[in-house]
Amino acid sequence: TQLLEQSPQFLSIQEGENLTVYCNSSSVFSSLQWYRQEPGEGPVLLVTVVTGGEVKKLKRLTFQFGDARKDSSLHITAAQPGDTGLYLCACGGATNKLIFGTGTLLAVQP
Amino acid sequence: GAVVSQHPSRVICKSGTSVKIECRSLDFQATTMFWYRQFPKQSLMLMATSNEGSKATYEQGVEKDKFLINHASLTLSTLTVTSAHPEDSSFYICSATFKQGVTEAFFGQGTRLTVV
Known about the structure:
The structure holds two protein chains of two kinds.
Chain A: E1 5-7, E2 10-14, E3 19-24, E4 32-37, E5 44-49, E6 55-58, E7 61-65, E8 71-76, E9 85-92, E10 98-100, E11 104-109
Parallel strand pairs in A: 2-11
Antiparallel strand pairs in A: 1-3, 3-8, 4-5, 4-9, 6-7, 7-8, 9-10, 9-11
Chain B: E1 4-7, E2 10-13, E3 19-25, E4 32-38, E5 44-51, E6 57-58, E7 67-73, E8 76-81, E9 90-97, E10 106-107, E11 111-115
């Protein structure tokens, strides 16, 4: 059983559209992170959320941590081709071990 | 941010040979390093946790005799794929953290291993 389930698995949209990616679990987390990975490279940290209900914005990206700290969402406004990549949520614990979600592969067509 | 360097970025080897991949933290001392494996268009699967000066902790289903991990110093961990087979072909990525209780990780660029 996957600890972190992401949906959708794949998403192909046109430039300018909005989208939301979800990260869900049955477990409660002290914090959750979102990463973006481009082909042939390692993931790059976008944001860390730690408080239930927390909302963080990073330019056109809005991240929300669920009130119960079991889920999170990533919303992208007016997507651009440069947003194309694999989006991963991840959770960690006291051992610093990061477990990644199932991933969402986003393709933004010009 | 902290920099993690992984080498080589690509390697092609023959079946039956061994391949070593290095992961270095360039500007910080990494208390812990992690090794992940990733198949095309899929997420990262944690293989093992590597702590400096102690044996690596492997995730369930990962063969420790197949994937040898050495963490000889606070800035270097190595992953050796022994007796490689085509099914070992994959993208291998390391990450490092430098502060206990903080799960922010810094990733290497990854190594594309192709076994022919």
